[in-house]
Write a structure and sequence with these properties.
heterodimer; A: about 450 residues; five-stranded mixed sheet; 13 strands; about 45% helix; B: about 800 residues; seven-stranded mixed sheet
Chain lengths: ~450, ~800
């Protein structure tokens, strides 16, 4: 049930140029059709398509666009191309190979949102992609696709590319807005939501690259047709990035609702010979992990939520049975500790504390009681933070402790045996029984 | 702008029905129902809530996640819980998180005992920690500035200090470095955080991370007392609390009065208390003997003073300085008028009393809070941050939060220029012409002529006029009273401005003066004016009464023989230093009340009575917006100091006139009875927050005389190769600042502010030492180039002990490389 929309022509040579993109139907009738629709009808069309945000939160794109206030005020459209979620690299390929699809989607979204100024905030590490997009913007401007009275309609749109400086938190929409304004990239308190007060206090629509790039196709196919792809509440196709212990890592476009096993084993070839899936992140490193027993869950928003995790950005990271769960937990926690902006207490202190505890687990200075504390700390972070960065550490690490507790305990015992005097706690009787101190 | 008046709604908190104004933040609304929601980062004075500390999480029915009470506006019918297990668990977890990196060094921490983190840990914390890792370490303590020490280990990163710097003081110096758990507060490049309002961050800090360097380790909360009073170091008259230990003032804290200071203090007000306890304060009577001032007994000093005054009789002149209280001023005019029969006294620096009377009209007065809610504010001829610092913050707040449109018209570049919609410069000496041009631009007439005379941009003047006319009805004009001395046409023009803009009687609009002295308004109202008694009552002497300039001339000419100086040193404080030198040289007797022997007193005083510091005084002051405020004694008088009222009464008694006062409050009462619009006031009525008589007793205000048109203006001097001299007095130019060890580093040295173009023409560079001269007098200064400085004019600082600008008479100066 492979169904390609965004990636249909992705490997076409020269697709990044305006000519080839136009030959493939870009900026053609579908754009004209979108811009000739009444604005309300366009928003309704987007709602009807059932398209959910591809950046991680999975909020209905059309509904978000409908939150934009009406009236003659400065409104903005921002494309979140910060793609900083570990394991996610789908937008990278999309922007690199087909930047015009994004620009075309932005024109449609800007029209739907009533915005005249738009920005692409791209992560600082995407240097090559930034150059490609910059070139594409120039081409689009030269062709009159960006600027005044686009395609002879009343739509005026300006588009800027802004490169970030490599902070994960700038992928959080309000942190991104602060950074775009030239401030320290810290998330803002919500409400007000960006649709009311976003960039420069103006109403702002923020969407992910993939979400925006899907819009031209929805218009082309018609919302009804698009909604037929995928499953209930998870319509359309999704770009997924698979990495980790699989034979064929990379980006794939799938129809939502595909069984996860088909993705991991079918498309990506599964882990190597003789190994099995031990745990996998279904939606980037901030999603609670699933185990090898969960491979038959259909890959769509609702099924993932039902399984206690999330589809997130569509980044599947697979770890096979040679991997230590402690290593995975520590790496994950270290990342979030490093990227925590420090604005709110639970995230700033909680991520830091968790890392310190996991380091003690590694060095043999921890006791099983630390696992309880760690689980408690994760619990205290979740839902108490200003933005979701804290949750993004606490959920996967918490899930690892919950699902792999025996392995953690075993690890602690072994690490302590290797370093019996590392802990201030007296060594356990179990260790003594193993003859560790003989 | 009408101030928001939200409807009252009813919500439920912990089972109680509570009424609150709609959209109040939950933590504030909860207080109305006696429920406390703990907070660290929330402080409404800092602007919109940031929700960073997460301490105020509460449960709201209908919302699945816990919400921050600091950022949730209360709505009708909202049901809030702060005591559920879920909320308690969240609160305990936040306290636990905050404490994991916070050193538990409370026993040696200055904040211990008055620490919100301590209180909240006890009240809402779990009481135990599960954290056994090493804590975060920083070098400690470090100097954030010479006034503030920073202990980064104690910091809980609540953002308050950074928000103050960025959003209240707008000095943009404090920032957060790094991120996550490694975040720390500092300045961008590590330079010291020196700014006029930097001390406020000490009070804002909810932990012991930012402490006052002068106060560090001087006391603990359980051995101090707080004593509320008013700061008398500038006309802002901010409300303060003195921290007193063993009869010593150890600290000054802000005492929030929304109508006066909005809860902030400048660093002068916060740290210059040190001058109360310095060794070179005058604490016993001094008498000049053999050319030197020597300590004597009170009896001797009073006798000498009384006999000198008796000899001089009606040929005594008197000047009251800005720090004189209403009571002291009132008794001074009684001493002069009743005991000596002299009418020669002044407190207004030469501004005609009729002008002060006309401008004191209650219907014209804007309040301090009006600056925040007006449609348009015009700052005219004053630099708030120097002249009345706390207003600078108020104006910034108005512009930032209530979108007040600001116009600035000053000779010298203003620190408010970046916030202003229009800024216009005029030449020093061109004040009267400028005001004439502005009224012409508003109400018709020739703009270009007077604008040329003021060396001001006529289009800029038109832009200011347009803003005033079209910006909205509520216009506040904040003017420096220095303007009034610039010519007889200024005050009529101001009145015309007020009349034409329809501000009279309009709440939220009006004029607000920035006077030269702390209590200038009060002193005028209690009759320390030539020819006007208490309550602006005309005196029979009329124009024969000499004012400031007349007194100088009278002394020099020998018409007056004695000078009585109440908290005033004309050599330091008044313009035309040369003229005063000659006057004091000629005077037979100079009697002064002073805390410090400034230059003029050291050289010329015959009798010096030790004066009380503001922490020792009782009495009243009148704020420039007409608010009568009460000074209360915080500490006992130092050394042999006696209250000024007693000295004045005693002198009077020796001169045969019993003033019938035997206590401070008796003087207050006498004064309230003597000034018609103070009638009904008592010290109790004034209380802690003061009373604006313009609101309570406007009807008793005696009708002011018509001022007439005031005639023409004199144009500003044409530079013709030389440069015009403008003067300014910095916030730090005060004897109290000079004598406070902590503020010594701010003590100004003369600098010559000039435009780069003028400097280039004269071959001068930034930092060059120069001699600035006019009419045979000269001062030394260091060239300071300011890009925004208007060319053709230079600016020198006034009110400083050496090389002060008042040595030069101007209007033009020559500049030579030293």
């Amino acid at each position: 049930m492979s169904h390609t929309i965004l990636f249909a022509d992705i490997d076409e040579p020269g697709l990044a140029t305006l000519d080839v993109y136009r030959r493939r139907g870009g900026y053609g009738d579908r754009l004209r059709k979108a811009l000739q629709m009444p604005r309300e009808a366009l928003v309704e069309e987007l709602k009807a398509s059932g398209l959910r945000g591809r950046g991680g939160a999975g909020f209905s794109m059309g509904t978000k666009a409908s939150f934009m206030p009406k009236g003659q005020i400065d409104k903005y459209l921002v494309c979140n191309a910060d793609e900083s979620e570990p394991g996610t690299f789908k937008d990278r390929e999309l922007m690199q190979k087909c930047p015009h699809m994004l620009i075309e989607g932005m024109i449609i979204a800007a029209y739907a949102a009533g915005a005249n100024r738009s920005f692409i905030y791209i992560r600082g590490e995407y240097v090559q992609q930034a150059v490609i997009i910059e070139r594409a913007i120039e081409e689009a401007k030269a062709a009159g696709l960006i600027g005044e009275r686009i395609l002879g309609t009343d739509l005026d749109l300006d588009l800027w590319l802004h490169r970030g400086a490599g902070a994960y938190i700038c992928g959080e929409e309000t942190g991104l807005l602060d950074s775009l304004e030239g401030k320290r990239g810290n998330p803002r308190l919500k409400p007000p939501f960006p649709a009311n007060q976003g960039l420069y206090q103006g109403p702002t629509l923020i969407n992910n690259v993939e979400t925006l790039a899907t819009l031209p196709h929805i218009i082309e196919m018609g919302a009804q047709e698009y909604a037929k792809i995928g499953v209930q509440n998870s319509t359309g196709t999704k770009l997924i990035s698979i990495s980790g212990h699989v034979e064929r890592p990379g980006n794939y476009e799938i129809e939502l609702g595909m069984p996860s096993r088909e993705i991991i084993y079918g498309l990506a070839g599964g882990p190597g010979e003789g190994r099995s899936v031990k745990l996998w992140f279904p939606g980037g490193s901030s999603s609670p992990v699933l185990t090898g027993d969960d491979l038959d869950i259909p890959y769509d928003f609702d099924s993932m939520a039902k399984a206690g995790t999330m589809l997130g950005s569509g980044a599947i990271i697979v770890a096979d049975d040679t991997t230590s769960v402690v290593d995975v937990a520590l790496k994950t926690a270290q990342f979030y500790k490093h990227e925590s902006c420090g604005k709110c207490t639970p995230c700033r202190e909680g991520t830091n504390w968790t890392v310190k505890m996991l380091e003690r687990v590694k060095s043999g200075e921890a006791t099983p009681m630390d696992l309880d504390i760690m689980a408690g700390v994760c619990e205290n972070i979740i839902g108490h933070c200003l933005c979701v960065l804290g949750d993004a550490m606490a959920m996967p690490v918490g899930s690892m402790i919950a699902k792999f507790r025996p392995e953690f305990e075993e690890y602690i015992e072994q690490a302590r045996a290797a370093n019996p005097w590392g802990s201030s706690e007296p060594p356990s009787e179990a260790l003594a029984a193993q003859g560790a101190f003989a | 702008m009408p101030r928001p008046q939200p409807p009252t709604i009813t919500f439920s908190i912990d089972g109680r029905e509570v009424q609150a104004p709609e959209n109040t933040m939950l933590v504030d609304a909860a207080k109305l129902g006696d429920v406390e929601i703990p907070v660290f980062c929330y402080e409404p004075k800092l602007g919109a809530p940031v929700g960073a500390c997460r301490m105020c999480l509460v449960e709201i029915e209908g919302i699945p996640k816990l919400q921050t009470g600091c950022s949730t506006p209360v709505k009708d019918g909202m049901v809030v819980h702060t005591q559920t297990d879920r909320v308690k668990a969240a609160q305990e977890s936040v306290v636990e998180f905050l404490l994991i990196n916070h050193p538990l060094d409370c026993p040696v921490c200055d904040k211990g005992g008055e620490c919100p983190l301590q209180d909240i840990s006890y009240g809402w914390g779990g009481g135990k920690s599960r954290f056994i890792e090493p804590k975060r370490h920083f070098q400690k303590p470090l100097e954030l500035s010479p006034l503030v020490a920073i202990d980064r280990e104690r910091c809980i990163l609540c953002y308050r200090c950074v928000r103050f710097s960025q959003e209240v003081a707008e000095d943009y110096q404090l920032v957060l470095h790094e991120r996550g758990a490694a975040t720390y507060v500092g300045t961008f490049d590590g330079h010291p955080y020196v700014a006029p309002f930097s001390g406020n961050i000490i009070e804002l800090c909810p932990v012991g991370a930012l402490t006052s360097r002068p106060y560090r380790f001087r006391a603990r909360p359980w051995d101090i007392e707080g004593s509320g009073s008013v700061c008398t170091l500038c006309p802002a008259q901010c409300n303060v609390t003195f921290t007193v230990r063993d009869e010593r003032v150890l600290r000054v804290l802000a005492r929030d009065n929304a109508e006066v200071d909005d809860g902030w203090l400048c660093d002068k007000g916060r740290f210059a208390y040190q001058s109360v306890h310095v060794d070179d304060r005058v604490v016993q009577p001094l008498l000049r003997d053999g050319g030197e001032l020597r300590p004597v007994t009170w009896e001797r000093a009073l006798d000498e003073a009384a006999s000198a005054l008796r000899r001089a009789g009606s040929r005594v002149g008197a000047l009251a300085g800005g720090e004189t209280t209403n009571e002291e001023g009132f008794l001074l005019q009684r001493l002069l008028r009743e005991a000596l029969g002299s009418e020669h006294l002044d407190s207004a620096g030469g501004v005609p009393p009729q002008v002060l009377h006309a401008l004191a009209r209650p219907d014209l007065q804007a309040t301090v809070a009006d600056l925040e809610f007006a449609h348009t504010v015009l700052v005219l001829g004053t630099e708030p941050v120097d002249d009345m610092p706390i207003l600078d913050l108020r104006i910034r707040k108005g512009v930032r939060r209530h979108r007040v449109k600001l116009a600035v018209a000053t000779p010298r570049p203003s620190s408010l220029d970046p916030n202003a919609k229009v800024s216009v410069r005029y030449a020093p000496g061109g004040e009267a012409a400028f005001v004439a041009a502005l009224t012409a631009a508003l109400f018709g007439g020739d703009v270009d002529g007077p604008a040329r005379d003021a060396d001001a941009d006529p289009d800029g003047i038109r832009a200011v006029a347009e803003l005033l006319r079209a910006g909205g009805e509520d216009v506040v004009v904040l003017y420096g009273t220095k303007l009034l001395g610039a010519g007889p046409s200024v005050a009529p023009a101001l009145l015309k401005l007020a009349g034409g803009l329809n501000v009279a009687g309009r709440p939220g609009a009006g004029l607000l003066a920035v006077p030269g002295g702390t209590n200038s308004r009060g002193l005028a109202e209690v009759g320390v004016l030539p020819g006007m008694g208490p309550g602006f009552a005309a005196r029979p002497a009329g124009d024969a009464a000499l004012g400031t300039n007349g007194i100088a001339a009278g002394l020099a000419a020998g018409d007056l023989t004695a000078l009585y100086l109440l908290h005033c040193d004309p050599i330091r404080g008044l313009p035309h230093r040369g003229r005063w030198e000659r006057a004091l040289d000629k005077a037979t007797t100079v009697i002064a009340h002073a805390q410090f022997l400034t230059e003029g007193l050291l050289a010329h005083a015959n009798v010096v009575f030790p004066a009380e510091s503001y922490a020792e005084k009782e009495g009243t002051l009148t704020h420039p917006d007409g608010r009568v405020q009460r000074l209360r004694t915080a500490i006992g008088r130092q050394g042999d100091t006696q209250p000024e009222w007693w000295v004045l009464a005693e002198l009077s008694r020796r001169l045969g006139e019993d003033l019938e006062v035997i206590s401070g409050p008796m003087v207050s009462q006498q004064l309230f009875d003597a000034v018609p619009f103070y009638a009904g006031l008592t010290l109790d009525v004034i209380g802690a927050k003061g009373v604006r008589w313009a609101e309570t007793a406007a009807a008793a205000f005696p009708e002011a005389p018509e001022l007439g048109a005031g005639g023409d203006w004199t144009p500003a001097a044409l530079p013709n190769g030389a440069l015009r001299l403008g003067t300014f007095r910095s916030i730090w130019a005060a004897p109290e600042v000079e004598r406070s060890p902590a503020l010594k580093f701010l003590h100004p040295r003369q600098r010559l502010e000039m435009a780069p173009a003028d400097a280039a023409r004269l071959g001068l560079a930034h930092g060059d030492r120069v001699t600035v001269g006019s009419d045979g007098s000269a001062v030394n200064a260091t060239v300071t180039l300011r890009n925004a400085s208007p060319s053709g004019s230079v600016f020198l600082e006034d009110g400083i002990p050496s090389d002060a600008a008042n040595v030069l008479d101007g209007p033009l100066v020559d500049i030579r490389k030293a």
